[in-house]
Amino acid sequence: MKNMYYICSPYKDADKFKMVCNQYRAKGFCEEIEELVPDCKAVAPHAWLPNLLDDTIPEQREIAIKFGLDLLSLCQYLVICGDEKIKVTEGMRNEIAFARKNGIKILHYKGGQLYENKPEENDY
User: Fold this and answer.
1) Please, are residues 99 and 76 in contact by the beta-carbon 8 Å criterion?
2) pLDDT reading at 8 higher than 80
3) What 3-state DSSP class applies to 121?
4) Distances (CA, A) of 21 to 57, 98, 101, 105
5) What's residue 122's pLDDT?
6) What fold is seen in the domain 3-116?
7) Which residue has the higher pLDDT, 123 or 81?
8) Average pLDDT in the chain
9) In this predicted model, what pLDDT tens digit does every residue of 31-67 receive, in sequence order?
């Protein structure tokens, strides 16, 4: 069975265009991680769930958040994607906290490389 890598990258933004860009960026991160790590499956619910659910409707947002955390619980790794300048969103903070609480290994992806990441509690 392939190891599953959960892509943790920004989605939410006040600018609708930036949210669409973030969605496509997440798809790209999946492809890059799968090229970098043989025999893995990278998943990013925010890469496609916005096509099915409306983030502006609280009930649908809650469904998406729950789905994401359920999917994360099946993963062996959470991969924080981006450089030091990324805007860490509330959703990302929740995913990182969930990974820590559930013993999911945290990695960082930047510059085409995966790094072990042991962030301090206050980093995110």
Assistant:
1) no
2) yes
3) coil
4) 20, 25, 30, 27
5) 46
6) Rossmann fold (3.40.50)
7) 81
8) 91
9) 999 999 989 999 999 999 999 999 889 999 999 999 9
Residue 45 has which token pair? 């619910």
Residue 115: name the closest of 37, 42, 44, 43 by CA: 37
pTM of the model: 0.91
Name the residue ranges covered by the structural domains of the chain: 3-116
Scanning the structure block, which residue is given the tokens 């990974």? 99
Residue 108 has, within 13 A of its CA and on its CB side, a CA count of 14
Two tokens at 11? 């989605």
List beta partners, residue 108. 80, 115
SS3 106: strand
